[in-house]
Design brief:
152 residues, alpha+beta, Heat Shock Protein 90, 3 helices, 5 strands, disordered C terminus, Anti-sigma regulatory factor (Ser/Thr protein kinase), kinase, HATPase_dom
Length: 152
């Protein structure tokens, strides 16, 4: 018998602080595990890294506060981080000599893609992880989801 998944979501605020990124990352992973999202341990590790990078960017570059939305569609785990800056996120090249700034490059590699859009109050950066059962290169047709999603 095939398991039926109902769409689920979890939304929470993050405010800059000593453990803010760790708490956000841990919550995102715990929610995925709690919902029974079929991701391999390696993919859960990649989810941790991607969540850390995107939340860190929002807190450091957009005023120290963000809203995280985690959605489970039954096929993909979607993570959206909304902040209050309308500045476009910048993905640096691997050869850049700066000591930081490669977070979105990590998200690109680990999640297989990311995207963003401006909102009335700022922007939303998002990435998605396909479940182990989903085809790794399947096009995403849900609104507001990256065209490429991660599967391992």
């Amino acid at each position: 018998m095939e398991r039926v998944y109902r769409p689920q979501s979890d939304v929470f605020q993050v405010t800059a602080g000593a453990d803010a990124v760790r708490h956000a990352r841990d919550r995102i992973v715990a929610v995925a595990i709690g919902w029974g999202v079929p991701l391999a341990p390696e993919a859960l590790g990649d989810l941790r890294v991607c969540a850390s990078e995107v939340v860190t960017n929002a807190l450091e570059h957009a005023g120290g506060e963000c809203r995280v939305t985690v959605r489970w569609t039954g096929r993909r785990l979607l993570v959206e981080v909304a902040d209050w800056s309308r500045r476009a996120p910048v993905m640096l090249s691997p050869g850049d000599e700066l000591p930081s700034g490669r977070g979105l490059l990590l998200v690109q590699v680990l999640a297989g893609g990311w995207d963003w859009e401006r909102t009335e109050r700022g922007k939303v950066v998002r990435f998605a992880f396909a479940t182990d059962a989903a085809a790794p290169t399947a096009a995403v047709t849900e609104p507001g989801v990256p065209l490429v999603a991660h599967s391992r």
